[in-house]
Write a sequence for this structure.
């Protein structure tokens, strides 16, 4: 009986060649994070729903609940076998980002961590949103955060995007733009305008790239904003600069509030630090707000130049009170690469690919099956020297085995010497074949492992 299998939308599974690209990206990201002194942690996939709700803005309605299909025989909860039946505080949900579980991790392990604590985390997250291009229900995020006890130095807010710039400079993603803002700027500006629902206004303006000025105008009007207030909100969102001139343009709008002044000073400091270290990598863009409620200061978004309609591929910000045990507050700042989202665009448009879809560098050919033990010895010696090697699946004509390697883009085929003759290795791309010994032969460095390639249109 045949069973029809249909894919689940929003749960991507890469083909081998695409998975090689993902692995190469992960290698660069992990190595670069570690070069900047971040240590790896991993948290569980689930959190109590009570910890997840209220942290994610619109993500609240996208949380996946977790439960067993059947409860315990003694009437225990299907959500948690150790909980009393029906106890809502024991409900579990899959985390929708890595920051909320990280805040819990900090609280649970504060006595064992050294602050400021620099962490990176690369894991799957889940959101029950409508799948569309670049938006998935299950996807991989790559986060870095710096958390301190009591207070967090402002210079870390400039460090975050510079780490990301270091990562992206090593990947063939093309031109990108890291946009930065400070939540205190729009908050203070809205308060200076007399708008009291600051969070609601932030969420609406954060949708500007998705629904445009007309859509934002309509939503703000429905929320009770006047035409003048709406005009000022849109004027603020249009301000951007690659230097510190944004501050004068904001002040020219004639709105004043202490929170606004504080935000302008903080964003100016971030831009000055970035300009000194990596000129042009940051753009002060005052439309960036970020919809997550826990951000309190600097916020970041990153877009591929020429593909702005695709949205952000890397985002984050500062949070001052996400983690607190009642005695100590742990402020932090973090930024996250949406790896699945980034790869979906690069792979689907064909601009990034791996040099080959397999790590194998050499195939050892078999003329007769009786030579398999010799082939295994050669392969073991090559592998022992770090050269990825496999043996032909079965004895066959050498032409067929070369075609087998070619179909998989494996660059070299190894031939066992007959009747005491030397072994040889053939570069099937050039046709060059030379005598070789498995104890000494080494492929060119560029062929040893798959590499990333950018294909320009």
């Amino acid at each position: 009986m045949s069973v029809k299998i249909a894919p689940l939308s929003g749960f991507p599974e890469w083909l081998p060649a695409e998975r090689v690209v993902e692995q190469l990206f992960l290698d660069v990201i992990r190595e670069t994070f570690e070069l900047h002194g971040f240590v790896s942690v991993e948290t569980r996939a689930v959190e109590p729903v009570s910890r997840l709700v209220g942290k994610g803005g619109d993500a609240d309605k996208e949380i996946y609940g977790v439960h067993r299909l059947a409860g315990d025989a003694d009437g225990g909860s299907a959500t948690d076998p150790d909980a009393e039946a029906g106890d809502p505080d024991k409900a579990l949900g899959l985390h929708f980002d890595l920051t909320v579980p990280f805040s819990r991790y900090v609280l649970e392990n504060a006595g064992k961590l050294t602050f400021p604590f620099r962490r990176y985390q690369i894991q799957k997250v889940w959101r029950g949103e409508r799948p569309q291009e670049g938006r998935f229900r299950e996807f991989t995020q790559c986060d870095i955060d710096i958390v301190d006890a009591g207070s967090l130095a402002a210079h870390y807010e400039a460090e975050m995007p510079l780490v990301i710039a270091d990562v992206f400079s090593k990947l063939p993603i093309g031109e990108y733009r890291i946009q930065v803002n400070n939540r205190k700027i729009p908050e203070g500006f809205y308060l200076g305008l007399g708008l009291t629902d600051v969070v609601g206004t932030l969420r609406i303006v954060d949708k500007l790239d998705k629904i445009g000025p007309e859509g934002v105008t309509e939503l703000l009007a429905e929320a009770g904003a006047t035409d003048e207030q709406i005009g000022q909100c849109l004027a603020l969102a249009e301000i951007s600069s690659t230097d510190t001139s944004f501050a004068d343009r904001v002040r020219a709008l004639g709105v004043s509030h202490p929170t606004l002044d504080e935000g302008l000073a903080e964003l100016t400091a971030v831009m000055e630090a970035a300009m000194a270290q990596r000129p042009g990598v940051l753009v002060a863009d005052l439309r960036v707000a970020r919809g997550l409620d826990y951000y309190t200061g600097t916020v970041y978004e990153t877009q591929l130049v020429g593909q702005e309609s695709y949205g952000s591929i890397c985002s984050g910000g500062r949070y001052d009170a996400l983690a607190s045990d009642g005695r100590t507050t742990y402020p932090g700042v973090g930024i996250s690469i949406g790896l699945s989202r980034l790869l979906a665009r690069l792979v689907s448009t064909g601009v990034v690919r791996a040099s080959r879809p397999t790590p194998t560098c050499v195939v050892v050919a078999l003329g007769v099956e009786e030579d398999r033990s010799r082939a295994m010895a050669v392969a073991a010696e090559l592998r022992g020297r770090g050269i990825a090697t496999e043996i032909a699946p079965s004895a066959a004509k050498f032409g067929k085995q070369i075609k087998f390697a070619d179909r998989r883009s494996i660059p070299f085929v190894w031939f066992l010497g007959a009747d005491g003759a030397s072994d040889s290795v053939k570069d099937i791309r050039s046709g060059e074949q030379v005598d070789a010994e498995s104890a000494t032969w080494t492929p060119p460095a560029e062929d040893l492992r798959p590499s990333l390639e950018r294909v320009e249109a």
Q: What stands out?
A: The first strand starts at residue 39 and ends at 40. Confidence is low (pLDDT under 50) at residues 72-76. The CA atoms of residues 112 and 395 lie 58 Å apart. The chain is about 35% helix and 20% strand.
